[in-house]
Amino acid sequence: MAAASWRNHCRESKLPFCLISRGRIMTFKSYWIVAFLIFTVRLCFADDDHEMEEFLKREYSLSKPYQGVGSLGSSHWELMGDAMVTTEQVRLTPDMQSRQGAVWSRIPCHLKDWEMQVHFKIHGQGKKNLNGDGMAIWYTKERVQKGPVFGNMDNFTGLGVFVDTYPNEEKYIERIFPFVLAMVGNGSISYDHERDGRTTELGGCNAMVRNLKHDTFLFIRYIRRRLTVMIDIDGQHEWRDCLDIPGVRLPQGYYFGASAITGDLSDNHDIISLKLYQLTVLRSSKDEEEEDEITIPSVDNMELIRCQSEEGMSGLAIFFTVLFSMLGCIFLIVIGLVVYSHWNESRRKRFY
Ligand SMILES: *[C@@H]1O[C@H](CO)[C@@H](O)[C@H](O)[C@H]1NC(C)=O
Ligand SMILES: *[C@@H]1O[C@H](CO)[C@@H](O)[C@H](O)[C@H]1NC(C)=O
Ligand SMILES: [Ca+2]
């Protein structure tokens, strides 16, 4: 299912639609230019299909019946903290207060391009926003460390994709939780728990993933330094864009893992499967050389990315400013009309 649906998604990517909707207000002539562009864009995507193949890598994947997981030495995966294996899932935390647990790969991953498909389930007794704290998927240098970042250490080195189910920062109303968010750490960047990681985020999206009857998935794709996160949570087998960032530099030889934490509020955080696909793509020798040089994780144009998320907030501010000034104007006009009609009436009275 995964490979085919991803490709369909690529073909129906937003770009052509965006051009079409703009085409409507264009002249007839430019319509043909747009049509040509769409055609070219489609060709590009088609080419991408041809050069890309996927292979499931069992050594980096975790799936039923979880043979040997958690037992000493025999499995590719190691359990930590309160994590527990049953026949149905790897439960990172139970729906109880102050727990943390994780599952970590024992084998460093040296693949250049990969895709991690996470089948997960978050459920519990708590009502909305009375549950927490969330879970994370990792590709990091460190492994099997306890800590405050969704059950992993702070100042981690590598990639973390978080499913944050509790809004710690209350004053921002524009963000709906649960919220999926990605962060790249270099060993000295701290995750700001009080601000739900806004200061270090690469981007994210809301995802109503709690207490659902159907299956929920998260996809993390890393290809030619482009990080893409998508979610499939509506039970329709459709993938929704969450974030897509070029210029993400991740070294090879890091470890995959998943972790979760509960505090005063709790949830069951379950991993049903982690499937890692190797993606084979064509790349130039220049690309190869550059990639071999990456030793510390980083993101190109991080300042720009941060500006964009700040802009989002000021966009909201602008909206409210405009809204309130318009309301103010209307109010003044109404007052003006009332005063004018009163003055008119009293003037008429004076004349008669
Ligand atoms: C990590 O990133 C921060 C912020 O971008 C930067 O100030 C710091 O120098 C980086 N540390 C390393 C070891 O690259
Ligand atoms: C993480 O890094 C920051 C800044 O480099 C530092 O102030 C903080 O003490 C570090 N935290 C941990 C737990 O190492
Ligand atoms: Ca949070």
Automatic annotation (TrEMBL):
Membrane-crossing segments per the record: 316-340
Signal peptide positions on this chain: none
Chief location: membrane
Classification via InterPro entries: ConA-like_dom_sf, Intracellular_Lectin-GPT, Lectin_leg
PROSITE patterns (UniProt xref): L_LECTIN_LIKE
Cell location: Endomembrane system; Golgi apparatus membrane
One Gene Ontology MF term: D-mannose binding
GO biological process assignments: endoplasmic reticulum to Golgi vesicle-mediated transport
L-type lectin-like domain mapped to chain residues: 54-279
GO cellular component, one term: COPII-coated ER to Golgi transport vesicle
Membrane topology: Single-pass type I membrane protein; Single-pass membrane protein
Keywords, comma-separated and alphabetical: Disulfide bond, Glycoprotein, Golgi apparatus, Lectin, Membrane, Metal-binding, Signal, Transmembrane, Transmembrane helix
Full protein name: L-type lectin-like domain-containing protein
Native source organism of the sequence: Anabas testudineus
